[in-house]
Amino acid sequence: MNIYLYGCGGHAKVILDILLKQQRSVTAFVDDNPPAGIEQIHGVPIYLASQLLPTVSLHSQWIVCIGNNRIRQKIAQKLNDRGFSFTTAVHPSAKIALGVDIAPGTVVMANAVINTDTKIGHHVIINTGATIDHDCIIGDYCHIAPGCSLCGQVQLDKGVFLGVGSSVCPSVEIEEHTTCGAGSVVVKSLPSNCLAYGCPAKIIQNNYSQ
Ligand SMILES: CC(=O)SCCNC(=O)CCNC(=O)[C@H](O)C(C)(C)COP(=O)(O)OP(=O)(O)OC[C@H]1O[C@@H](n2cnc3c(N)ncnc32)[C@H](O)[C@@H]1OP(=O)(O)O
């Protein structure tokens, strides 16, 4: 099955590396604005999305390699509407415990840990060295940046972004599309669409969009 990566930035290169370490191959990078003068990355060609998409078989598999949650969601929905399906990429060094579910489109970077009975939605990014403990629920399109620590029974609703090195206390819920800045220590639940940061994390702005 041919695998295509949508996006060709640094995040996409990390996902290519994971897939190669899983002994899988990538057919192409696809991008709306490929970088001028660069035709391939580590031997994998880059194509303009509008030109390549009509030629790609529906039997291919895709990963949307865009860090921004809203843009990743928009592109994933576009591919889904065209009938494409998605695959996961899980680095061989990641530790995935019993009863963990990881939905298609999600990527798990090196040294991440996902503990027992946690459920991870579609098109989620569990970045390098992040740990997610037992019985958590991570909604679609979340991004958990490098080095974050989630205690047990944490719930992240759709599209939450946790900045690098953030920590979340047990049983806290962070509602849809909220952004927690780098190093946040989230001790209480947070409402949707806000920006919060600090220790303890405080709401800095409501109606915030990543
Ligand atoms: C593999 C990868 O690279 S994955 C990428 C992961 N990326 C991240 O984790 C980045 C997370 N981003 C952040 O934390 C950003 O600072 C954001 C989104 C919270 C805010 O960004 P901006 O709106 O551009 O804020 P800006 O840089 O203008 O800072 C505004 C003020 O807030 C402060 N501030 C910004 N972020 C934080 C934070 N996380 N904690 C405490 N204070 C902060 C700044 O020091 C500044 O204070 P000042 O006005 O007294 O100088």
TrEMBL record:
The active site is at 134 (proton acceptor). Pfam families: Hexapep (PF00132), PglD_N (PF17836). The record marks 135 as: Increases basicity of active site His. Substrate binds at residues 31-32, 67. One of its GO terms (cellular component) is carboxysome. Acetyl-CoA binds at residue 143. Residues 2-79 form the PglD N-terminal domain. InterPro entries: AcTrfase_PglD-like, Hexapep, PglD_N, Trans_hexapeptide_repeat, Trimer_LpxA-like_sf. It comes from the Bacteria. This is Acetyltransferase.
